[in-house]
Amino acid sequence: MTDLxxxxxxxxxxxxxxxxRPSEARDRPAFIELFASPEVHTxxxxxxxxDELERAVPEVPGRRPGVFVIDADGAxxxxxxxxRRDAQRPGHVRPDAGEAEIGYMLLPEAWGQGYAAEACAAxxxxxxxxxxxxxxxxxxxxxxxxxxxxxxxxxxTEAERFEEYGAEQWFGVLTPxxxxx
Length: 181
Ligand SMILES: CC(C)(COP(=O)(O)OP(=O)(O)OC[C@H]1O[C@@H](n2cnc3c(N)ncnc32)[C@H](O)[C@@H]1OP(=O)(O)O)[C@@H](O)C(=O)NCCC(=O)NCCS
Fold this sequence. Notes:
CATH class: Alpha Beta
Number of helices: 4
Pfam families: Acetyltransf_3
Helix content: 10-25%
CATH architecture: 3-Layer(aba) Sandwich
Shape: globular
Distance between the termini: 23 Å
Strand order of the largest sheet: 1-2-3-4-5-6-8-7
Number of domains: 1
Enzyme class: transferase
Radius of gyration: 16 Å
Organism: Streptomyces argenteolus
Number of strands: 8
Keywords: Acyltransferase, Transferase
CATH superfamily: Gcn5-related N-acetyltransferase (GNAT)
CATH topology: Aminopeptidase
Order of helices and strands: EEHHEEEHEHEE
GO molecular function: acyltransferase activity
Low-confidence stretches: none
Strand content: 25-35%
Bound molecules: coenzyme A
């Protein structure tokens, strides 16, 4: 299993309307908005208090391999992440676990515009080139309909469902396309 750090950071990735890039200090207020938003955290265990976030969030948040800021017109509107799934958690497709897992979170004002789909598709294309042949997994609550819709649109298929954090989880996999020589 190749370490994500060995392919990080990539050059900024440009799509039709967005740029995916590593985080910067100027993104801090948007990170705090994301973590404090009750709407964003409806299916993610609830928001964190803003005053606590103001104290705890580092100067440059999300500065680690696999964390892309989604930038629209020069401002952060969310994140898309590709990180190794914790072997202790349920849901695996490889015997050695440690699968690459995609996650996404957008500020509510950026929903309903296809930004999440555009950003995730670009991140997955980057991943397929950077670490070819690896599957990507995705775990989201079954009742998070915007998220399961997006997962299916991105090409993920349901591998299993299980209970975690007191709710039913949809666990999907995106199998790499094998080039036919
Ligand atoms: C999950 C989440 C990213 C989905 O956001 P989203 O905006 O619904 O997702 P998409 O990018 O697929 O956009 C689809 C919507 O954009 C619309 N749209 C507009 N222009 C579009 C375009 N050019 N292309 C595609 N869709 C477009 C679609 O019609 C659809 O609209 P609708 O919601 O009114 O039906 C968002 O709800 C979120 O951040 N939730 C909180 C975090 C979370 O739960 N994450 C999951 C854990 S991994």
